[in-house]
Amino acid sequence: MILTISIAAILLLAGFAVSARWTWWRQSKPGLKVLCYHKIGVPPRGSKLAELWVSPGKFRSQVKYLLDNGYSTLLFSDLKKLLESGSPLPEKAVLITFDDGYENNYLHAWPVLKELGAKGNVFVVFNTIGKVNLWHNPGSESWVNMATLEQLAEMQDSGVVECGSHTMNHPHLSALRLEDAAWEITESKRQLEAAFGREMCAFAYPYGDGAYSPAIRSKALEAGYTFDFSFRQGKTAWPWDRENSTIDRLFIRGGDNNWDLSLQLSRGASRL
């Protein structure tokens, strides 16, 4: 009898220890919630970056979870209006963002957003529009198609998706001379605005590189972006201290389920 109780206690403690890897035990944190996706689809065989792929079915389930639980999805322009008016952030506001501008965002994510009545935002690498993800080493991640200019324009004209900048070529900005990093940041804004005929108010640092370099970040602010987004995990206090901090994001992995999503939204991370 004592042995049985001891075994049960050990199993209970082991189960608790395993579950503690998820952040359910952390206190809920306030702040701006920005989900970060990359590719919507099935990763190619042998991909070493499979966590960057979220299946279309799982993406649909996650967007439905947001809407079923009272979240309102914002465009960059919606967030800008809140910032400029000094309005409080709605408690259940969330931005859905996609890095890079893949064709699979057009083929798989946009239809889900349209169907369910949600909004999303795509950070575009200008020089790869209509090409492939040239910054990736094909030995670790197969090249995949990027959205064409026509596809990006169609999404943006629908009012369901807005575009932002992700530089001209997706470099590690800190590896460049400062003037070259500034060109990547500024020229992508100019080219995207010329292509789409509207303001690009949001910028995301490739790899998150440069987001915490005062010299590089100053170039993003000087370029005229209202928002600059990092790749650091977490939520951002609102009202946002624009002069002193970037906007953090919640990275959604291919293996995440809706419980992971709920923890991201409430705790700012799902797993340790």
Question: Can you walk through the features of this model?
Answer:
The chain has helices at residues 2-19, 56-68, 76-85, 103-116, 149-157, 178-196, 214-222, 258-267, and strands spanning 33-37, 39-40, 53-54, 72-74, 93-100, 120-124, 161-165, 202-204, 227-233, 247-251. Helix 4 links the parallel strand 5 and strand 6. The chain has one domain: Glycoside hydrolase/deacetylase (TIM Barrel, Alpha-Beta Barrel). It is of the alpha/beta class. The protein is built from eight helices and ten strands. Strands 1, 4, 5, 6, 7, 8, 9 and 10 form an eight-stranded parallel β-sheet that branches. The chain has a two-stranded parallel sheet with strand order 2-3. Helices cover 38% and strands 17% of the residues.
Quick structural summary:
The chain has 272 residues and is an alpha/beta fold.
Describe how the helices and strands are arranged.
Elements: H1 2-19, E1 33-37, E2 39-40, E3 53-54, H2 56-68, E4 72-74, H3 76-85, E5 93-100, H4 103-116, E6 120-124, H5 149-157, E7 161-165, H6 178-196, E8 202-204, H7 214-222, E9 227-233, E10 247-251, H8 258-267
Parallel strand pairs: 1-5, 1-10, 2-3, 4-5, 5-6, 6-7, 8-9, 9-10
Query: How big is the Rg?
Result: 20 Å
- Can you give the helix content as a percent range? 25-40%
What is the CATH class?
A: Alpha Beta
**Order of secondary-structure elements:** HEEEHEHEHEHEHEHEEH
Q: How many domains is the backbone divided into? A: 1
CATH fold assignment:
TIM Barrel
Low-confidence stretches: 13-18
Major beta sheet, specifics?
8 strands, parallel
In terms of DSSP E residues, the strand content is 15-25%
Continuous helix count: 8
Question: Would you identify the CATH H-level superfamily?
Answer: Glycoside hydrolase/deacetylase
- CATH A-level architecture: Alpha-Beta Barrel
Number of strands: 10
**Structural classification:** alpha/beta
